[in-house]
Amino acid sequence: MIIQFILILFFLLMSVYSVVQRKLAPALSLTVLCASVIGIVFTLAPQLTTNIAVAMGVGRGSDLILYMFILIFIVAILNVHLRIRANSEIVTALARSIAITSARTPVKRSSE
Amino acid sequence: MTGDTIWFVIPAYNEAAQNTISTTLKTVLARYENVVVVDDCSSDATGDLALEAGAHVCRHPVNLGQGAALTTGIKYALSLGAQAIVTFDADGQHSVDDATAMLETMQTRGMDVVLGSRFRGHTEGMPVSKRLLLRAATLFTRLTTGLDVTDTHNGLRVLSRRAAEVIHMRQNRMAHASEILHQIGTAKLSFIEMPNTITYTEHSKAKGQKISGAIAIIIDLIVEKIRN
Question: Which of B84, B96, B105, B124 is buried most, with the most CB atoms less than 10 Å from its CB?
Fold first, then answer.
């Protein structure tokens, strides 16, 4: 029962955090909120995951949770990866502009 | 196109050892007056040596990769009125004679782009593993771009101003070589390949691309496809 307490506490914290951050990323905030609520429901009624799993053709509830976790994880990683690349494009543009504005011209030639 | 509108763009990263960058610049500046070296945040004196040798120097405040350095140099050259741009490696593997022949070909045949090819020319000291890797890269590029080229990752190229303005490299690292070809294809720029002589020194071999680099290039290109 201690694990249920820990999990529910975690999901509640996530819910509060997502509500606080809703202005920053509304879609993500809503997703996290929904996931947290589903998490709390599954924590309180673990049998529910098994019922859904059996209905979907998966053996056990915990397996279903694992598969879902893998899918969400991959999407999240891809998302982060794309963000990093977008960020690196910004850094590139910035670095390029610094490089060009601070270009050094050869003394010998500019005095010719 | 007169001599003073020809610009050499040389990306360089840590090329100060054995005066590599100085030697390369000496041979180029003996014949052409406009050279911009893009110092990709070297930790050695590459930038200072290049300036001393008589080149313009743009220094990236952070290391971005060869593709990014080329783009920076091209942008700089265009801003100073370049009508023709020669991309040239810093390590001395290219020959200025080849660049001159390529510039002449661009002018006389009215081409947008002239590409150097190791496999049409005479190559000195290329290791077998490198040859196989480059052949594989070429096959990959031929299949994905549909261009009939024999050498896809050659740093020696001549671009007309028009071509330089059209080509936008977004790949910062080494995937830019395939990207340039892809854009030549989509922008329908006219191009021709010319044989060129490459001299592989111990220094250039040590700095060259390896199998791991090829895999990184393919990942870069796949991610770019997903994004578009």
Answer: B84
